[in-house]
Amino acid sequence: MKTEPKERRVYVVEWKEAYSNGIDEVDEQHKHLFFLVKCLKLETIEKTLDELADYVFSHFSTEQKLMEESDYPDQERHRQIHDQFVSNVAECIANDDPWDDERLHELRKFLNKWLIGHIMTDDQQFGRWYKQYQYQQNFEELRFSGDDERGWLSHLFKPDWVLRLLGK
């Protein structure tokens, strides 16, 4: 009895707002990374992998610059996680096996799981740190700005400032 080959579902994960870490530039880059993983197809695998590699490098550089700027205490561990990811992906891509549906599925599955896991843990933690850093920067600017006759405390009660403080 001949059986039909089992059709494999494409492993696709869409961006969700729950993945947001509150740093607009980083969130936009994360959205694009999900898009690039979704675009992985056998017909264009080499081109998409090249674009993905370039974009990952750019994204990690952005995150690491923000970590340095904010003096993030866990930046070295975060950088090591990035380095390990790059190493794992490079090893996977360097494999001489031909690209087929199975290999592509495994790569897409690995990339999506890693992205979600990393974003929901390490990047969320960094996002909270960075928002606190920005809050302190804004507070210090208001506190020491001499361009307004009112005291710095009165700025806290301006409607637009309260909305920004609440993230609205």
CATH fold type of the domain at 17-131: Four Helix Bundle (Hemerythrin (Met), subunit A)
Q: Number of DSSP strands? A: 0
CATH class group of the domain at 17-131: Mainly Alpha
Question: Given the C-alpha coordinates, what overall shape results?
Answer: elongated
Short description:
The protein is mainly alpha-helical and 168 residues long. The chain contains six helices and no strands.
Description:
The chain is mainly alpha-helical and 168 residues long. It has a domain at 17-131: Hemerythrin-like (Four Helix Bundle (Hemerythrin (Met), subunit A), Up-down Bundle), CATH 1.20.120. It has helices at residues 24-38, 45-69, 75-94, 101-144, 152-155, 159-165. α1 (24-38) runs antiparallel to α4, α2 (45-69) packs antiparallel against α3 (75-94) and α3 packs antiparallel against α4. It is elongated, with a radius of gyration of 21 Å. The N and C termini lie far apart (63 Å).
List the main descriptive attributes of the protein structure presented here:
6 helices; mainly alpha; 168 residues; Four Helix Bundle (Hemerythrin (Met), subunit A); 68% helix
Q: Secondary-structure map with pairings?
A:
Layout: H1 24-38, H2 45-69, H3 75-94, H4 101-144, H5 152-155, H6 159-165
Helix pairs in contact: 1-2, 1-4, 2-3, 3-4
